[in-house]
From TrEMBL:
Residues 165-396 form the MHD domain. One of its GO terms (cellular component) is endomembrane system. This is Mu homology domain-containing protein. It is found in: Endomembrane system.
Length: 396
């Protein structure tokens, strides 16, 4: 890699030159402006580099300048390591107050432009949370190398982990992508309907534990490097990194009827055929207390409200947004009817909830099968949570 730049929505906020003569940000930004919709840009001013752009939910954009011979997977994996490592020290939105920490993280993770650390736990061994700038100034320019024996544990787990309160948490999170036709709920036929799922483990365990995670059904997808032993595709054994780790990822087709929130809409209603109606329903579920931040956006022309059973409808240039509150009870139903001076093309649904996931995946058990260094008689607190949100839910 030649250089690393970090920007917010308006300007450059951090840069880190890697090579001896990296391209200037003004040159890179001009290249990006010429290709506003591209995340991988071959330089037009020089054949010596490729520009990779990675946008993050924090509002930050990471720009990596690399040699054309570098695999695109390398910058992508490095940005993930960098953001995960930064998140251990500060909220990413506070980057402008933590330049010294970011600089030290980069100096420890790159060796002549090549990433040689692969886990946030490794970074934590070299970058302390206090006095990082003075530490950086006092250190030798020679990079540290990771050196450890098998007795120290695997490379993805930092050495000599100690916790006064030992805990183990599993989070199953699924994000919905769904496009359905606008017919009545009983006839709704999905164009596409699936979830992207992730299983996270938060481990605060002393020593070098070995964990076995059993799920209610097999899943196929990505696995963290720590998962070195597995039987059936529903059972996994591993020594976890310390802290929060994304263990598993998967994608699964899901029937629309599995979603706890459904939405339908009809157009061409009324005497003048210029009315439309949107209906939202929330199913009952014993594990879910409420739906959070439920909202429907209507895309059309100028809209006038005829009937609204609950919530607030706020018009905008695209049509309007029907906000149903920060918390919506289970078993809830609501209807919005309006007049549109144009054609209502589609509506989108947004919400999140805690306590269930659409695929029905469950954690059957999470057990410590070996506990070297944990301490005799220590019984960690364990917990499991489920969460759902919407990446895209369109009714058209």
């Amino acid at each position: 890699m030649e250089a690393i730049f970090i920007t917010d929505a308006t300007s450059l906020i951090f840069e880190y030159p890697v090579s001896g003569s990296p391209p200037a940000w003004t040159t890179i930004s001009e290249e990006i402006d010429l290709h506003p919709g591209s995340d991988i840009i071959q330089s037009t001013s020089s054949s010596n580099y490729v520009i990779y752009r990675f946008k993050r939910a924090s509002g930050l954009t990471f720009v990596i300048v690399a040699d054309p011979t570098v695999s695109p997977a390398v910058p992508a994996q490095f940005v993930q390591l960098l953001t995960d490592s930064m998140a251990q020290y500060f909220v990413l939105a506070k980057l402008d107050s933590n330049y010294d920490t970011v600089t030290l993280i980069l100096s420890e993770t790159l060796d002549n432009g090549v990433p040689y650390l692969s886990e946030p736990d490794q970074v934590r061994e070299f970058v302390s949370k206090g006095g990082v700038l003075s530490k950086l100034l006092s250190q030798s320019a020679t990079p540290h190398k990771v050196s450890r024996s098998a007795a120290d544990g695997p490379y993805w787990r930092r050495q000599n982990v100690r916790h006064t309160q030992n805990e183990l948490f599993v989070d199953v999170e699924e994000s919905i992508t769904c496009v359905v036709r606008r017919q009545g709920a009983s006839k709704t036929t999905p164009v596409v309907s699936y979830v992207d799922g992730s299983v996270y483990l938060t481990s605060h365990l002393s020593g070098v534990p070995e964990i076995e995670l059993s799920l209610s059904r097999p899943i196929a997808g990505g696995k963290h490097v720590c998962i070195t032993k597995s039987g059936p595709a529903s059972r996994f054994r591993f020594t976890p990194p310390d802290g929060r780790t994304k263990l598993l990822t998967y994608t699964q087709d899901v029937n629309v009827s599995s979603y706890l929130v459904n939405c339908t809409f009809h157009t061409g209603l009324g005497l003048q055929k210029d009315e439309f109606e949107v209906r939202v329903g929330v199913l009952m579920n014993r594990g879910v207390k409420a739906v959070d931040n439920l909202a429907v956006e209507v895309f059309g022309g100028k809209i006038k409200t005829l009937r609204n059973t609950t919530g607030d409808f706020i018009t905008n240039q695209k049509g309007g947004v029907w906000n149903l509150g920060t918390t919506t009870p289970m078993g809830f139903n609501a209807t919005f009817r309006g007049i549109c001076d144009g054609n209502v093309s589609h509506v989108t649904l947004k919400y999140s909830l805690q306590g269930a996931v659409p695929s029905g995946l469950k954690v059957d058990s999470v057990n410590i099968v070996a506990a070297r260094g944990l301490g005799e008689g220590v019984k960690p607190y364990k917990g499991v949570k489920y969460a759902t949100d919407v990446a895209e839910y369109v009714v058209r």
